Write the structure tokens for this entry.
Amino acid sequence: MKLILLASLLILIAAFLLRWWYGRRVLAIWGNHPCRCNLQKWLPPADDTRTVHRAEGTAGEFARELHGKAITDWKKDRSRASKGRENARRFTNLIPPLCMALAVLIVFTGRMPIMGVIAVGAAMTALGLFMSILSLPSELQAIRQEINTLREQKCFPNREDESAIIRCAMAYPWLDLLPAWLKWISRA
């Protein structure tokens, strides 16, 4: 029981650290960097129907648009990898709370000690996070492909703007690493 809990806590701590290092820290440093783009070359997200786009904004705003475009294209092109990533997210968000609810019911019937409930909840969360971490490279590869398109078209006249947007775009998948309920706990 203690070994399962210890291994699960190590994975949880690693996920928090990865999210902070590759996600929050990068966006804190580069997210507010002011950027300009060439509107004739800038690719809006595929589902965007606006006719007017802003030529100026922060790197975080442009990166969010780039990330959205990359994910939309990725879901169209590579359905198997994107479905795997989406299933890992769904598992990470749904299974641990359901297991915890079931474990609490088992504790009330007297079939499992409280330490077992905590270990089961931590293990399910760690398993979901592990699956999410393993599915992350395919999403990052989809963003890299969109970045290559962005560089070929030279949408940003300033190289520093382009670099800031690329860093921020690569940070957004790391922010989605944790399930929603863990993000809520980490804010409190």
